[in-house]
Amino acid sequence: MIYFKGSTPLVSEYYQSFRRFAIHGDTRATGKDMHGKNWSKLCKDCGVIDGKNITLTDVDIVFSKVKKKTCRTITYDEFKVALGELARKKYKDKTGEEAEAEVFKLIEGKAPVIAGVTRAVASPTVSRLTDPTKFTGSHKERFDETGRGKGKAGRVDIVDTSGYVSGYKHRGTYEKKVNKPTEGRPM
């Protein structure tokens, strides 16, 4: 749903919330349709689920009811229908339009809540263990002088398969010695 203010189109806050939740957790999502997992997250994060009138089971049933039989996702239009059904169930004492308006207020401008994300601890012990300048022995060889890892070259001994014996210093000089012009020597 797009509204116009002057000549500039303004996308409604409901549609923005729909898109934010539709792409949450899926790198390939386009934001045009929403999976059931994201629908449930929207209902939890926005406070549509209250545990009394609306439960997670109700949310899943409404999702299954409004989506097409062969699809796993709902479009924005199906999303509005699903919210209408939940609104009438949540606010039984209000009319259908008033109930929908209340539920839309809950969703307006919201974004997914990211909880349970692990943060790095900034303690002296952790910083000492993760500082490559303090590494010794063979571990020190895994990093260059700037502290960046060398990748596989720092972890694995790369075998020289050129045919020369390890430790041979004059690699590539044989041809020069063999093809050296002979001056003054009889053949």
Task: Supply the key terms.
187 residues, two-stranded antiparallel sheet, 4 strands, mainly alpha
Q: What do these coordinates show?
A:
GO terms for molecular function: tubulin binding. Belongs to the TPPP family. InterPro entries: EF-hand-dom_pair (IPR011992), TPP/p25 (IPR008907). Keywords: Cytoplasm. With 187 residues, this protein is mainly α. The protein contains eight helices and four strands. It has helices spanning 13-23, 36-45, 56-66, 76-90, 96-107, 124-129, 152-155, 174-178; strands at residues 2-5, 8-11, 33-35, 73-75. The strands form two sheets. The chain has a two-stranded antiparallel ribbon with strand order 1-2. The protein has a two-stranded antiparallel ribbon with strand order 3-4. Helix 2 crosses helix 3 (56-66) and helix 3 crosses helix 4. The longest helix has 15 residues, at 76-90. Residues 1-10 have low confidence and may be disordered.
